[in-house]
Amino acid sequence: MDDISIINQLLEKYVNDKNIFIKDKEGFIIKLKKLIRDGKKNVQIVSDFDMTITRYWKDGQRTPSSHGVIGGNPLLSEEARNRSKELFNIYYPYEISNEISYKEKYKYMVEWWTKEHDNIIEQKLTQESLDEMIRTRPISFRDGFIEFFKICKSNGIPILIPSAGVQNIIERILKQNNLIYEKLYIKSNQMIFSPETGICVAFSEPIIHSLNKYQFNFKGSPYEKYIIDRKNILLFGDNLGDIAMSKSIDHEQVLSFGFLNIDIEKNIEKFKNVYDVVIANDSSFNFANDIINLLSE
């Protein structure tokens, strides 16, 4: 079967899926043909974590982000939880707003992350307490992600997670779910613990927030050798700024997937103008899984 027949078969499978939007179908097909031709050995993954790898909703409730696992945890003092909620209510509308300027939004994001990190540091948390917090306030993976991870691992496809969340939490969540992989690399905000007291005393700098996830350098890192010859990227994000996550990586092509979880009607056109594929209503990784399985060995 030729590439066009394979692609048409894929599109036919999802023709009635009301949660998948492809604005430029011709451009999508051109990119997919290159992906199929170049194969699994030439592809790498770049994916956000919170509300991308994880679900946005579960049982009618919003699931916690990696920051929210800590900030909204019942193991924290009520004062700390209220402070975290207050910060969320102030700054989250700015994060998801498409009405304010990039410069203004950037300023608000730095303020939010700085204040939230200060709030966490004040709680004098230990590394051991993080595991209990995750069990107390668990996240939920997006449908199809476990299969996505297994497909990547079994085919040796590297996965980069540039996240504005908390790296220590993300690493523990993946480990608790046995999602361990040599070619998985996480670049996020790290809690720094005192060797004397075992208490969190700082966060890594510079702060990684929702608008600067692309600011990293792989030169000399163990991850560099895994991606050096992989010029095709599958990118996954849940806000318009995530499209820039591949900016610092040498590549020829990006096929991008945007998960639009809320305010669908308001934001669908903006997402369609940025992402090759828009997946709405907290839907699954299944379409991406089928695409990876199409790639030649």
Automatic annotation (TrEMBL):
Ribonucleoprotein recorded as keyword: no
Keyword Protein biosynthesis: no
Molecular-function GO terms, alphabetical: 5'-nucleotidase activity; magnesium ion binding; nucleotide binding
The protein's enzyme class: hydrolase
Example of a GO cellular component annotation carried by this entry: cytoplasm
Reaction it catalyzes: a ribonucleoside 5'-phosphate + H2O = a ribonucleoside + phosphate
Pfam family, one: UMPH-1
Record-listed E.C. numbers: 3.1.3.5
UniProt keyword terms in alphabetical order: Hydrolase, Magnesium, Metal-binding, Nucleotide metabolism, Nucleotide-binding
GO biological process, one term: nucleotide metabolic process
Family: Belongs to the pyrimidine 5'-nucleotidase family.
Protein name in the entry: 5'-nucleotidase
Species assigned in the record: Neocallimastix californiae
Organism phylogeny: Eukaryota, Fungi, Fungi incertae sedis, Chytridiomycota, Chytridiomycota incertae sedis
